Amino acid sequence: MKNIVLYASVTGNTKKLALAIARNLNCEARDMQTCSLKDLKDFRYIIFGFYIDKGFMSLEVEKIASEIRNKKMGIFFTLGEDPKSERVVALKERIEEFFVSNDNEVLELFCAQGAISQELIEQVRQKALAEGTPITPEREALWERAKSHPDENDVLNAVKAFMKFK
Known about the structure:
The protein has 166 residues and is an alpha/beta fold. The protein has 2 domains: 3-114 and 149-165, Flavodoxin domain (Rossmann fold); 116-148, no CATH class. It has 6 helices and 6 strands; from the N terminus they run βαβββαβαβααα. Strands 1, 2, 3, 4, 5 and 6 form a 6-stranded mixed beta sheet that branches. A hairpin with a 2-residue loop joins β3 and β4. It is globular, with a radius of gyration of 16 Å.
């Protein structure tokens, strides 16, 4: 086989993009938890998707990613922030450096905003309350905007980003 889409998703945001990308490329999409590294040796391209957890990949995803070496890759991730923000631009650079440092070639790097779980929002609210730091109106607005993502446009952009892998 030529391609595989490998993903990790908690809220369904990343899975939604993974399935759309795989459908367009006519390839398999697999949850990282159901795939071993030896399963990946025969694929020419690995399209690797994950969610951002506390500013980077979750520890579980990072462990899997660190074992992938010498592959041509496409990377996509979701997070509850505006993908065009300066913080996300810096995060993209950090993610690319991570994969390149493992002798991978990153051919595409895509990011989409995703809905934030209500549980996480409540945790942030409780922490802010305990620390005496109010949640800003801007942050509330970001959370509200994130509820509709990834939307149809995000899915289309993700599919377009990985067309070169056909």
